[in-house]
């Protein structure tokens, strides 16, 4: 709506739900103007732990935004206008009470590929679409998986702590690590991210094994030199096992006591998928007893772990706080995709990354 074309604007009320904006000029002349204005979106908090301003600006190009905190203070005022809801895996859940207070909602759009935190059947039952951001997350997540693998193998974090601590001295043969070049990598979950990890590992001359629900094409396998294996053989033969599966009923607890026992005592488990894919009690036991050498985890359950969780005090664990996609470039790409999905849903067009009910 062309607010800037109206002189002496003294009051501006919007009612996207009715399709009209009601504007009072000079306090006496009322005009009803068909809304050409931006739709409204609900987002979680801006600032610390929330959206960085730059990302909010991308959303603001297409939407008026209401933060969840402001919305919850006055759901009756904002609720009817909101047509899109932007969420991340750490956002409060899209619960029935929230969905009921958003009668114009068209889409819940998730930043990230994993949608295990969203109840898709529930959201769909409100006539609301769900979308995610596949593909654009793959490079950053694959980079982080390699970073965790290298950091764990070469004890990079321990090395840093020694280097900056004036009380410790360098030992010529201290901090011995595992050789990455030429080692065997087992990738469990060979979707977009898994494949990107394979591409990167080729540069380290690694022998690449993979397991996936569906075997990749012969061309895909050849391009990265990956060999398909059943899970047990992959676990037995790998020096590094990287988990990149979606969290589903089938993959919950995929790596438990039995699977960890199959791994080499010198092997490292890297998890960039979801914490629940691993039975954490079994993992603690395996790390304490030396069944495996180490774990490097970008994901845990819950996130963050309680401060007294045993994983936090084990010397052979490296943990990052679910930062797989956290690069400026990737988050920008994710938010653009979230905006594209939301704009399409609001306009009633096909939603590019719609997550369909199975
Ligand atoms: O699912 C994803 O893409 C990442 O974990 C970010 O949530």
UniProtKB/TrEMBL annotation:
Residues 54-355 form the D-isomer specific 2-hydroxyacid dehydrogenase catalytic domain. One of its GO terms (cellular component) is cytosol. InterPro entries: D-isomer_2-hydroxyacid_DH, D-isomer_2_OHA_DH_cat_dom, D-isomer_DH_CS1, D-isomer_DH_NAD-bd, NAD(P)-bd_dom_sf. Transmembrane segments: none annotated. Residues 146-324 form the D-isomer specific 2-hydroxyacid dehydrogenase NAD-binding domain. SUPFAM superfamilies: Formate/glycerate dehydrogenase catalytic domain-like (SSF52283), NAD(P)-binding Rossmann-fold domains (SSF51735). Pfam families: 2-Hacid_dh, 2-Hacid_dh_C. Keywords: Oxidoreductase. One of its GO terms (molecular function) is glyoxylate reductase (NADPH) activity. It comes from the Eukaryota. Gene3D superfamilies: NAD(P)-binding Rossmann-like Domain (3.40.50.720). PROSITE patterns: D_2_HYDROXYACID_DH_1. PANTHER family: 2-HYDROXYACID DEHYDROGENASE-RELATED, GLYOXYLATE REDUCTASE 1. Belongs to the D-isomer specific 2-hydroxyacid dehydrogenase family. This is Glyoxylate reductase/hydroxypyruvate reductase. It comes from Nothobranchius furzeri (Turquoise killifish). The lineage of its organism: Eukaryota, Metazoa, Chordata, Craniata, Vertebrata. The gene is Nfu_g_1_004162.
